[in-house]
Design a protein that fits this description.
Radius of gyration: 21 Å
Strand order of the largest sheet: 2-1-6-5-4-3
Largest sheet: 6 strands, mixed
Shape: globular
Number of helices: 11
Strand content: 5-15%
Order of helices and strands: HHHHHHHHHEEHHEEEE
CATH superfamily of the largest domain: PhyR, sigma-like (SL) domain
Helix content: 40-55%
Length: 307
């Protein structure tokens, strides 16, 4: 990558290929929406292209794009706060499929920083706190770089990072250390849900499990989190779940936001729900279901491989 101005189209394309995954990774963790993160990254690169095309000297493409991407995300979060206060029911982040080659999984120092639980926890921070925390603790930017991005002094930026880190550490989610064990337990859980296996669910669910559902007022979903094994089991295996499953013709287990999950799809191969589970101590600690069609559109279709 060129250290000074980027005058040629080929150079701009190279910068895009090299830095788009990092910018996507930052933007998604900032705003919790894959589609909105994509818009932010596209705008950041448009500004980069415009500035470099005008002959403006850009000493570091990474520094420039990191600053623009983060500032756009901060502005977006400030406007999104009002919308989320009016959101119908539980708000959850827009899910992303993760695995080899996924943009949002690259460049992060903390593997679990992509989980639904972690992204929901980030909502407790102000936009500036969120930016400082992510750039420092997840992406390992220097305090001097972050200070320039958020428009604060370096000392103030350090104080913001300490305050944000304290909030996150106090409520940081725990996950099963063995990925293979996580996947095995998740597979058993989803099979129990599909089959309405109450005894299997009782065995797998933690006593204080919490189930969240995000329908956004556009898909069936209970309005408040459901707490406790008994209530969760009745919800997951009861008449409501059986009725909902009538519209589901297939399921595929996948990695969602770095955690075990599943996509449930209809006869047209369209996702009708994405479910992810947090597993620790050999039990399912939380279940998050996203059924809002606006949050599933970017996933495309999922033909049943068994058909």
């Amino acid at each position: 990558m060129m250290a000074m101005g980027v005058p040629r189209e080929a150079d701009v394309s190279q910068v895009y290929e090299e830095l788009r995954p990092l910018m996507s990774s930052i933007a998604y963790r900032m705003v919790g929406s894959a589609s909105e993160a994509e818009d932010i990254v596209q705008e950041a690169f448009l500004r980069f292209h415009r500035e470099s095309g005008n002959g403006t000297e850009i000493r570091s493409a990474k520094a420039y794009l990191s600053a623009v991407t983060t500032r756009l995300a901060i502005d977006h979060l400030r406007s999104a706060r009002v919308r989320r206060e009016r959101y119908v029911g539980t708000w959850l982040p827009e899910p992303v499929l993760t695995g080899p080659g996924s943009d949002v999984t690259e460049h992060a120092e903390t593997a679990d920083s992509l989980s639904m639980a972690f992204l929901v926890l980030l909502e407790s921070l102000s936009p500036i706190e969120r930016a400082v925390f992510l750039l420092r603790d997840v992406f390992d930017y220097g305090y001097d770089e972050i200070a320039g991005i958020v428009g604060k002094s370096e000392d103030n930026t350090r104080q913001i990072a300490v305050r944000a880190r304290r909030q996150i550490e106090a409520r940081k989610p725990r996950f099963e250390t063995s990925r293979a064990r996580r996947e095995e337990l998740a597979r058993r859980f989803f099979e129990a849900v599909i089959n309405g296996d109450t005894s299997g669910l009782i065995e797998l669910l933690a006593a204080d499990v919490v189930v969240y559902a995000d329908g956004g007022g556009k898909a069936p979903a209970f309005p408040h989190p459901v707490h406790g094994r008994d209530r969760a089991m009745r919800l997951l295996a009861g008449p409501t779940a059986r009725g909902y499953r009538l519209g589901v013709v297939g399921m595929r287990t996948v990695a969602i936001n770095g955690q075990p999950g599943a996509i449930f799809f209809d006869r047209d191969d369209r996702p009708v729900a994405v479910v992810t589970v947090d597993i620790a101590d050999d039990q399912v600690q939380s279940v998050r279901a996203i059924a809002n069609p606006d949050k599933l559109r970017h996933l495309g279709t999922f033909p049943d491989p068994s058909s």
